[in-house]
Amino acid sequence: MKTKEDLLASSQKHKLLIKKELTALSGKTTEVVKKLMIAGTVISSAYLLYKLFSDSEEVVVNEKEKSTKKTSSGLGRIGKVITQQAWLYILSESKQQIQEYLNKLDDNGNDS
User: Fold this and answer.
1) In this predicted structure, what is the pLDDT of residue 40?
2) pTM (whole model) above 0.70
3) Cβ atoms 54, 83 nearer than 8 A
4) E strand or H helix at 36, and its extent?
5) Per the structure, how many domains does the chain have?
6) Rounded to whole angstroms, how far apart are CA atoms 24 and 47?
7) Cα gap 30→22, rounded to integer Å
């Protein structure tokens, strides 16, 4: 049977291990939150650019039918192209980040 001192030492050891795990988890959570904030900022910036450059007007084509036609300026078309390119870049970077994360998870799972 274990003595009281052995049990206290074991308890202290487990307490330190739990603290280490919580610290590591906290660090990972902070890293994920930072990445999400960056992604949100990039997406909102892309949306603002889109709205800025896609300044289109609605013109009434036929008053009886009350149909409208959207016309966009040359600047609006350029903005759409820039926005599309930005989205492609964001999606490719997101894909790469997800692949790296999944590879890291696989590596950690294989090491255990």
Assistant:
1) 83
2) no
3) yes
4) helix 4-53
5) 1
6) 35
7) 12
Residue 55: domain span = 4-111
Q: How far apart are CA 29 and CA 60, in angstroms?
A: 52
**Helix, strand or coil for residue 107?**
helix
Interior/surface letters 20-37, b for 16+ CB within 10 angstroms, e for the rest: eeeeeeeeeeeeeeeeee
CA distance 111 to 101: 15
Query: Can you tell me which residue has the tokens 């078309």?
Result: 77
Alpha-carbon gap, residue 15 to 47, rounded angstroms = 47
> How many residues in total does the chain contain?
112
pLDDT tens profile 35-90? 888 888 888 877 777 777 665 555 555 666 555 555 556 666 777 788 788 888 88
